[in-house]
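Q: Structure tokens for this one, please.
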Amino acid sequence: MKSREVHLTAYPKGEPTPEHFKLGEADIPEPAEGEVRVVNKWLSVDPYMRGRMSGIRTYIDPFALGAPMEGGAVGQVESSNHEGFAPGDWVMSMNGWREAYVAPGQGLQKLDTTHIAPEDYLGIAGLTGMTAYVGLKRCIDLQAGESVWISAGAGAVGSAAIQFSKAMGAKVVATAGGQDKVEYCRSIGADSAVDYKSTDNLAKAVKQANEGGVDGYFENVGGTHWTAALEVLKPKGRIAACGMIQRYNDAGAQPLPDNLTNIVAKSLHIQGFIVSDHFDMLESFIGDLGAWMAAGKVTPRNTVKEGIENMPSAFMGLFSGENTGKMLVKL
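A: Here is the predicted structure, written as tokens:
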């Protein structure tokens, strides 16, 4: 069996371009004892992958140049030499950016697709959804009746966070880029939504959307959003710092915002987090998500590109706002 796979050719300085990626091909052998051969059906691209293209270790090792890249993937077992897996089983792995692979069975997660579509395990029912859940539940400790600002509200984590916040009884202000994305945020429950591209004073626009400011802020963007959040948060406000996508492609250091004194003046609580440090919440997440989905309070949305050759463009599209909901590639 042949499998096409995407390699990183160089570590980008600034925004990645198509020249940083190369499509290769590999022979996929029959599975040895304890192994399975999987044909991927759905692949994930995520903003954190930009950090792995830096050539240095952050909280995870960088991608190796000239080797198949890695990322979330959902596929079906094609042949098995492991007693726990049979052909046709759906499995999830980190063996993305490729069409097929052989791996030990103990490293794969078998999926129940009875009530959840296979691709949604890469989005709202997977680490994407759990990231939103951890940020709201543990970092912000969001309570019913409170208000929360969700940045990048039309993105994968942001759209999950809007729906989870509403299910938890909170009032939600969302920000997104473009009127269509603002309308999407409203359609999934945001009480108000602001197009950050159409305002020259983001803090003022968000304050007007939720008079008196907000109790919590879910940080996906950084940069101008971070600066505005320090103005909008109420005293003793809480920030869950999940990501800062506006800064990921910066070629050099940027100046600090000039309103950092608000952290002290307002007694703000800021919690940065990596979702893998919070797997003790997995059972709670699955339980709440199942109840919310059954009640019709949470609905997945994906943006889909097709073909392994479109993995680089899907990834780069994250930074230009091409996706509404989770960005996926279908094979």
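A few notes: Residues 123 and 326 are 6 Å apart (CA to CA). The mean pLDDT is 95.
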